[in-house]
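User: Could you go from structure to sequence for me? I need the amino acid at each position, not a summary. Structure tokens:
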């Protein structure tokens, strides 16, 4: 018997079977008629004791913990062997009219029911080879006990052998069917377990990728705020050191410029930290978050803002909302920091499940191919986000003619909405 772990639900079924059998014994349903006789009372007491012992064995966890792999085989052998032994006793009692019934076949077919449940449990837990061993073992054990008894009391031995053979063939058929069903179920369980492992790995990969992207975004934020501010301060301080005390008026102007640069950098750093602390989408929704983003950025950079947004957009997938907002955030940040523009336009439309985000400026423009190769302005990050939400990102820009960024996303119907 190869399997070390017990199949789920098997022990519960085993206990129910033994409990029902014990109940039937107690109320006397197993006896066709009992004549008040000492041997009949001993027989009934034997049935009660063996069923009670088996139920205790199956219910007490101590046995399972200490018996190990032998725990279930012992229970099955006990549940199968005792009914065969009971049958040999019952044959004698029927022959002596202590129990009513045909002494030749009485109880033999009832034994089929008592052995059928252990057969199901064996087929449930083990392979077909073990099922064959079980069927052959019970048949041999039964013949060893019943043939001598039948011969002694004058019962037809051929009838007993025929019943055992018919039962064995029936059990082979039932056992093979159950083994096939359980094999298919185990394969499905194993496939499901492998799928769960793959899903867990995939989820971990996605989480790591999201963490990596967020780190890259944070690095870009720090680069565009603190790094620029500190580098500018360093240049100005070096210039003041080189001037010394010869030109106090120039030094004063540089100090004022350094102070302005420091304040601007501090403001940008606070804005970046605030963006990291809270998600505007969760607090305000997409439309209001875009409105606040565009307004605050244009005021900070002294830009004229053309804002065309719908009153609200509902029922958007959270991943799609996040992608739209982050792309817009990167685009307007680029306008404020790099475009040297005087006007910025932010437009969002939704029509026939087609969403379009358009951000443009009248700034200095750039060469998109060179910028993407250099990895500047977060364009690669915007393309990656657009791909994640199934959108198409179009960037048009020329030196001295401004920049236009257009994102188009076709919404996918949620199949759950039809349920």
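Assistant: Here is the amino acid at each position, in order:
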């Amino acid at each position: 018997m190869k399997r070390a772990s017990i199949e789920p639900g098997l022990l519960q079924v085993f206990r129910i079977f033994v409990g029902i059998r014990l109940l039937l014994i107690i109320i006397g349903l197993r006896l066709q008629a009992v004549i008040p006789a000492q041997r009949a009372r001993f027989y009934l007491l034997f049935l009660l004791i063996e069923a009670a012992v088996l139920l205790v064995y199956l219910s007490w966890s101590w046995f399972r913990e200490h018996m190990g792999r032998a725990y279930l085989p012992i229970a099955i052998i006990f549940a199968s062997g005792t009914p065969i032994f009971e049958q040999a006793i019952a044959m004698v009692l029927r022959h002596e009219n202590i129990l009513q019934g045909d002494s030749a076949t009485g109880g033999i077919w009832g034994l089929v029911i008592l052995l059928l449940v252990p057969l199901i449990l064996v087929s449930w837990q083990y392979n077909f080879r073990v099922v064959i061993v079980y069927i052959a073992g019970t048949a041999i054990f039964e013949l060893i006990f019943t043939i001598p008894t039948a011969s002694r009391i004058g019962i037809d031995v051929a009838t007993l052998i025929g019943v055992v053979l018919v039962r064995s063939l029936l059990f082979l058929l039932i056992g093979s069917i159950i083994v096939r069903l359980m094999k298919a179920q185990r394969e499905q369980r194993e496939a499901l377990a492998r799928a769960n492992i793959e899903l867990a790995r995939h989820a971990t990969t996605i989480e790591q990728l999201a963490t990596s992207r967020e780190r890259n975004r944070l690095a870009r934020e720090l680069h565009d705020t603190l790094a620029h501010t500190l580098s500018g301060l360093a240049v100005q301080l070096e210039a003041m050191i080189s001037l010394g005390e010869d030109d106090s008026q120039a030094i004063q102007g540089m100090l004022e410029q350094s102070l302005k640069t420091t304040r601007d950098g501090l403001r940008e750093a606070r804005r970046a930290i605030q963006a990291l602390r809270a998600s505007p989408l969760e607090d305000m929704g997409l439309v209001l978050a875009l409105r606040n983003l565009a307004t605050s950025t244009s005021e900070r950079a002294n830009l004229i803002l053309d804002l065309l947004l719908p009153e609200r957009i509902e029922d958007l997938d959270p991943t799609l909302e996040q992608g739209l907002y982050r792309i817009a955030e990167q685009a307007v940040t680029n306008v404020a920091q790099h475009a040297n523009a005087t006007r910025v336009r932010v437009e969002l439309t939704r029509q026939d499940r087609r969403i379009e985000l358009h951000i443009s400026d009248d700034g200095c423009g750039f060469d998109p191919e060179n910028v993407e190769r250099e990895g500047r302005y977060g364009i690669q990050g915007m393309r990656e986000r657009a791909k994640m939400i199934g959108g198409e990102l179009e960037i048009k820009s020329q030196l001295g003619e401004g920049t236009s960024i257009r994102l188009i996303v076709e919404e996918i119907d949620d199949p759950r909405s039809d349920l």
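One structural detail worth keeping in mind: Residues 284-413 form a domain with the Heat Shock Protein 90 fold (CATH 3.30.565.10).
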